[in-house]
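Re-run requested by the PI after the first attempt was lost when the workstation crashed. Everything re-entered from the original request form. Ligand of interest: magnesium ion.
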Amino acid sequence: MTNPSLFDLRIGHGFDLHRLEAGDGVTLGGVFIACPYRIVAHSDGDAAIHALCDALLGAIGRGDIGQWFPDTDPAFAGADSRKLLKAIMQAVREAGYAVVNADLTVIAQTPKLAQHKAAMVEVLAPLLGISPDRLNLKATTHEGVDAIGEKRALSAQAVVLLAPCRSI
Ligand code: MG
């Protein structure tokens, strides 16, 4: 990167939460993880990707994922969230920005994510147009308390930094 003006940098934050119910697996970060739960959602419910999408939209000042892909629109029923992220990254590029780095935290009591983090980074980094070392993925439990801790929900938070394409 060649010294972009600090005023050209854009930061965004995203949060998402979905309920869990009995099932045969969840998709997080574009990776299917077999477990005795499923995510309740209109789309595939990939909270990790949804948090990234909202962080990107926040950084370019384009609202939120619910405006882009309404959960009342049948077109997005069961949608593969990777496609939603691709569409939003297209908007990021059209706005003249590229991702500098992203920091993603998934908060889930179940499933355990440690052994899936590398696969999730492998899926997400190319979608964000960055090398894997620029996407940090953290997983934490909710210490057994509240809805997430009681395995009734999971959530994700993301922060992204964008810079003008010309400077990367
Ligand atoms: Mg969501």
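Saved to the shared folder this time. The chain has one domain: 10-167.
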